[in-house]
Structure formats: C-alpha cells, structure tokens
Specification:
single chain, 145 residues, alpha+beta, 3-stranded antiparallel sheet, 6 helices
Length: 145
C-alpha cells in the first residue's frame, strides 16, 4: 500500500488509483481519486492511522450529511450512537439473563459437570438479582459490577 498509479485515457492523466489490499473474496481493492493531492492525502492517512480509512472515504457524503444534520441540533455523533445503542437493543445486546442462559448452555455442551452448573447459577443469579434480569449488557455500568 502506498503507491499511487496514474490512470490515463487517450494519453491524458484523468485520475489516480491507490492499491488498498485484497477483499475477503480475494479481489484486489483500489481507491480512485481525480486529484493527485487527494490520493496523496489518502496514502498519508492510511499509513499513519491503522483504522480502515478506505471505508470513511467511501462513505464520505453520508457522513458529512449526518454530521451537518447533527450540527444544527448541537449533538455529537458519539452521543447519537450511544443513545441509539441504548434504545434499540438487538440480538448483539442480550439481556443479562439471556446471556447467563447462553453461557450455561455452552458450558454444558463442552462437558462441564452438574456441580459446575449449579455453582455458576448460584453466583450469576446473585449478580442478576443485584443488577436486574431485564437489563441489557450494554447498559450495565462499572459501578454495578
């Protein structure tokens, strides 16, 4: 990663491409830019910041639109994400009692003893009683633990 290739049409440079890597399905991934400065900026950010910047470039218009809407409301993006996660639980955010059941079922599956199951239920039921059985995992605070 890091090499910029000029893209030519009829002998004229019409843009620049940067090799990003290989997609999960094995195809080469490239990013295309109309200006050399944009390609250089992408390479500089990509090499100094290990986060997937390519996705940010791909979704730039979407992100800018969302940020502009939030700016008028004086709300930050992290505040919106936190609010959404707390108020729209999904299967990725199970309740504490659901998670305990999944945990014990997995331990049974791998062959843990009945004594182990009873012990875990005893201690985890105490924690559920303290925190609440319908509390989603993402809502449990450090103070509650």
């Amino acid at each position: 990663m890091g090499k910029i290739y000029p893209q030519k049409r009829n002998g004229q440079v019409v843009g620049y491409s940067v090799y990003v890597g290989v997609s999960p399905d094995g195809r080469r991934e490239r990013r295309f830019f109309t200006k050399l400065e944009s390609a250089e900026n992408f390479v500089r950010v990509q090499t100094t910041d290990p986060r997937p910047v390519a996705e940010l470039f791909d979704r730039k218009a979407e992100l800018l639109y969302a940020l502009e809407q939030l700016r008028s409301l004086r709300v930050t993006l992290p505040e919106v994400v936190t609010f959404y996660v707390r108020h729209h639980p999904t299967k990725g955010n199970p309740t504490l009692s659901e998670l305990v059941e999944l945990f014990i079922a997995e331990k049974k599956r791998i062959g843990r003893s009945n004594h182990y199951e009873r012990s875990m239920r005893y201690y985890l039921d105490g924690f559920i009683g303290h925190v609440g059985q319908d509390v989603h995992i993402a809502e449990i605070t450090r103070e509650q633990v």
